[in-house]
Specification:
Length: 132
Amino acid sequence: MHWLAFGYRFTRSAVLGLSVVVCLGFAVALLLPAQAEAQEANPCPFTGVLCLFDGPDYTGAVWNVMAWPPGTSTCVGLPEHGWADRAVSAINRGAQVAALYPGDSCSGEPLLIGAGGSVSPLPFAPRSVYVY
């Protein structure tokens, strides 16, 4: 075999190998932004909170609420925060159940949303929530 033929084969296989690596790199680069966009598209990107939305399917304006300091629980009146009869959907990103109430001061039959749960549309417009 002539040495030029050996060089041609080596160059051809090196170029082919480099092409495969470059293609894989582009494939990974294309997949990573898609994952980042999916995470950014999360309608309730906060942890440890109850997110309320004034639109169906977790759209529209969002307001989040949590008990402060963490590890406690509290009833929060929504009228004081401009959210009386406004919430249409909810996502609970807290570690415990959240309760939505049709009445002020956490009165009436509650709608419970478990940790990590969500409801859309809500069966009533809550006036207060109990969060942990």
